Q: What sequence folds into this?
């Protein structure tokens, strides 16, 4: 596991937390921020996955 995979996963978790807090409090702005964080985290994790795949081949 490389740093991009770890940081991407952490960003996804933070995004999910923001999304849930936004839903519970009715704060649409925070909910959208959470969605964006999750997407960014997934992109970074995917980059890390690709790096690992290249390293192993």
A:
């Amino acid at each position: 596991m490389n740093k991009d995979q770890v940081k991407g996963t952490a960003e996804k978790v933070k995004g999910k937390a923001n999304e849930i807090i936004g839903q519970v409090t009715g704060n649409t702005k925070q909910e959208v921020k959470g969605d964006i964080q999750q997407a960014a985290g997934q992109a970074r994790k995917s980059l890390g996955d690709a790096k690992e795949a290249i390293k192993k081949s």
User: Anything to note?
Assistant: The chain has a mean pLDDT of 97.
